[in-house]
Amino acid sequence: MKKLFTLVASLALMAMGHSALAQGNMINGQVNSPNYISTGMPIALIAPDALAAAMGDAGVASTPDAYSAHWNNAKFAFAENQFGISTTYTPWLRNLHVSDMNLLYLGGYYRINKRSAVAGSITYFSLGEIQSTDDQGNQGQMINPNEFMMDATYSMKLSDNLSLGATARYLRSDLTNGMSVNDGSGYVQTKAANSLATDVGLYFQQDLDAGQQFALGAFVSNLGAKFRYSDDDTETEFLPANLRVGGRYSYAVDNYNRLNFLMDFNKLLVPTPPVTIDGETYGSYDNLTDYHQTGVMQGALMSFYDAPGGLKEELQEVQISAGAEYWYNDMIAARAGYFYEHANKGGRQYATLGFGFNYSRIQVDFAYLIPTARFSNNPLSNTIRISLTLNMGKVK
Phi and psi of 331, rounded to 5°? Predict the structure, then answer.
């Protein structure tokens, strides 16, 4: 079983572009250690659209669109169009000349009336074809790891300025194609992991004087049952439950020029694993077995205070996204942004650029990611991402 979860962790880390270090250290008597929080199916947190991806992955309070199921489901109730559908193709690890890994997304929404909307989306991630090997390096079966999500959303206005969204999601992670894995005491039959999860979002939007608008958003996503890749109930993986809060300021300079400024703060609602330093374990758990047996809701609450390094490490777990967008005549857009994650929590740090154009009912967006960390293995490095959106009608 240990070998199986080594594979699971390796694929998850490859998907997110993280590096994990097992050895901790002390500075001035305080725990100071790279301590990556591993989850099942981390792909659920990857931006599905080139629009937000071009603005540093900021989107919890961005202008409502067909991708709002990922960023904040409450935004659908404020969408200006009656109907919208979108799709994105994201190549994976192209910087390493990998040609068979990609992320596909399809989503859409429908405004029932001026106060409510329904939406749905499908995400599929293929990790290509992988040659499995045993402990002696002998080749085994070829596997095709893949992950899949689909969800349904209902969003409604609670007032003229405030809306609430709720989403039900099904997740499936098949990383081993049912391989039998030798855990040292015998072979264990693996299986695809399945789970159900929910999202809840709040969105506030207020028009100000002189063509200005202010928006705030809060979004809890992927809160659900843990993944099990075998029948062994002691080996589980948390879903990437997540809290995102942020805001947007928009300013219409005149009838042709419009600016948007966004900032998001993002934190996993997953407990922080313990670290071992000189044979002594630090943190809220005596060992990794106790850590993995923590309940979902208990883990979500503990995620705010269980870090071995105390408040300092808890703050390190907050990721920051910032972005800006310029529109000319609602036809051409230019975007830029930045994403920051502390080195002890994965070290993803990158700038983003992008542009888009809107013609009649069709909008096309492009994004490009530029790593800025000294050592980076981000799977989206130097990759162009493309999104296509179709908007129909105005809300009556």
Answer: -120, -40
Is pTM beyond 0.85? Reply is yes
Secondary structure (DSSP) of 97-126: T--S-EEEEEEEEEE-SSSEEEEEEEEEEE
The residues pairing with 194 across neighbouring beta strands, listed in sequence order, are 172
Residue with tokens 């079966």: 141
Query: What tens digit of pLDDT does each residue of 127-154 get?
Result: 877 766 666 666 666 778 889 999 999 9
Is beta strand 193-207 parallel, antiparallel or unpaired with respect to 187-189? unpaired
| Sign of the Cα pseudo-torsion (153, 154, 159, 160, in order) | positive
Query: Which three-class secondary structure state does DSSP give residue 131?
Result: strand
**Worst-scoring range by mean pLDDT, 131-135, 192-196, 216-220?**
131-135
For the chain, the first-to-last Cα distance in angstroms comes to: 57
| CA atoms of 218 and 227, how far apart (whole Å) | 25
Return d(Cα 283, Cα 306) in angstroms, integer: 6
CA atoms within 13 A on the CB side of 199: 36
CA distance 391 to 29: 57
Burial label, 96 (beta-carbon count in 10 A; 0-12, 13-18, 19+): exposed
In this structure, the strands spanning 319-328 and 280-282 are unpaired
Q: Determine how many CB atoms are found less than 10 A away from the CB of residue 286.
A: 10
Q: What are the residues whose beta carbons fall under 8 Å from the beta carbon of 81, sequence distance 6 or more?
A: 111, 391, 392, 393, 394, 395
CA dist 105 and 164 (Å) reads 24
- Write down the mean pLDDT value for the chain: 85
Query: Quick check: helix, strand or coil at residue 177?
Result: coil
Which tops the pLDDT comparison, 229 or 331?
Answer: 331
CB count in 10 Å sphere of residue 111: 24
CB 379 within 8 A of CB 15: yes
pLDDT at 396 over 90: no
Question: How far, in Å, CA of 142 to CA of 180, rounded?
Answer: 13
Task: Yes or no: say if 119 and 152 are a contact pair by the CB < 8 Å rule.
Answer: yes
Check pLDDT > 90 for residue 155: yes
